[in-house]
Amino acid sequence: MTIHGKVVAVTGASSGIGEATARHLSSLGAAVVLGARRTDRLDRLAAEIEAAGGETAALRVDVTRPEDLRTLVNTALERFGRLDVLVGNAGVSRIGPLADLDVEGWSAMVDVNLKGILHGIAAALPVFREQGSGHLVTVVSTSGLKIVPTQAVYAGTKNAVRTLLEGLRQESTDGVLRTTSISPGYVRTELVDNAVDDPAVREQARQNMAALGIAPEAVARAIAFAIDQPEDVEIGDLTIRPTRQN
Questions:
Q1: Which residue in 20, 25, 137, 246 has the fewest CB atoms around it within 10 Å?
Q2: Residues with catalytic function
Q3: Which strands make up the sheet holding 31-36, listed edge to edge?
Q4: Contact, 124 vs 133, CB < 8 A?
Q5: Residue 7 phi/psi, 5° resolution?
């Protein structure tokens, strides 16, 4: 597999899709550089990967801070000599009608879901250009494919990322850069824990996710599939959802 020996940085790696992706790619022979805000979880994950024979580095990363993304990329270069893939997975969700005027929640989604990806691009793209190769994988959402009430701003941030990745792809047809947008549907993660303030609505969302959601490892395998393609093959968009999701 072409994954073996690659160096992959993952944001939002402390739980959910990010954690599953780090574990899976490491099991396939990649060196993984882990970034997230919850360093206690990161350190535990890194220790488990190393105990299983994997190579890893972990550091606190807040994707709203451009300097944190630069540090993540530089850590990959200093520790492993290169960076082959940046998986932009960190994300937040706030669910509610626009009439609730949750301006703080809107700003958080724009800062993390959209600006966080831009900060990663700004940090990694010069390195990819200098190396002559690189791959940006972003985790977006089926919320951007099927617009539903209460998710307008969340879907808007995810669609903005999908748009900017397509624009970057069209600007990068010299064979150096590959871009991939992964759109998961319902996945059993902690995303809904802070998505709504109403405890009853939050609990219902958790139950729905537990009943319908697929395991984060399924998304990790999809990410690995995109990374594992030959250098002249690009998986631009990949949607993965539960078979029962409408």
A1: 246
A2: 154
A3: 56-60, 31-36, 7-11, 85-88, 134-139, 177-184, 237-240
A4: no
A5: -110, 120
